[in-house]
Amino acid sequence: MAIKIEHLNYVYSAGTAFERHALKEINLEIPDGQFIGVIGHTGSGKSTLIQHLNGLLQATSGEVYYNGENIYGEGYDRKQLRSRVGLVFQYPEHQLFETDVFTDVCFGPKNLGLPAEEVEARAYEALKLVGLKEKYYKSSPFELSGGQKRRVAIAGILAMNPEVLILDEPTAGLDPKGRDDILDQVKMLHEERGITVLLVSHSMEDIARYVERIIVMNRGQVMFDDTPREVFHHYRELEEVGLAAPQVTYLMHGLQEAGWDIATDATTVEEAADAIRRFLK
Description:
By secondary structure, the chain is an alpha/beta fold. Helix content is 39%, strand content 21%. The protein starts with a strand and ends with a helix.
């Protein structure tokens, strides 16, 4: 079991007039190798939750375990934890600061105390994995496009050989091709390297297409935790908390309401097309 969360609570500005309970009694298990989507409206607690997974935030109460060890235990090495559980923030500019792309990607493994040859080898491998062309390696990261910056930020985490990769809105502001490129690369990494992936996203289409499990956050609590098919079955309840289902969910329900004898549990375009073809035959 990679990550286990028990009775996790987090309070912002505790003891002041601005006190706010961001997380309430969270209990979750995240096994090795899963591809998980985390969704919720703004202020639901999803970003606060993921920042507990590598110790960036410390719980007000409750415990977080990584590979069986309590990360709040005395003497626990959280720096080492962050090399194993990598977090890519929504805005890559927050993680890019070196003069050129290659040096930036070298920063993480260099801080692990690795030999220079291994640091550079890891940086080259990570940049190739995310599909960034070599002609950009000596460019300033701040001269890159939004999609390229995200690739560099992901490469910087991958260069530390993490076991868990957490992505906070990695496709925000990207065009459809850029979005697909980034998520296809993440899917490839998940499949080829067995990395556990947590994807925070507002795009229900992306969530339905890539993940095998969805955690829905609402008002600091876990509202649903199940497969995409089961979670999107509750699309009316999701709407009540400011979320939605993929467009195909509404299409299939509309067809059924129009008199079609058709299943409504499709979550992707491919599944919907198959269901419609079966009906028409």
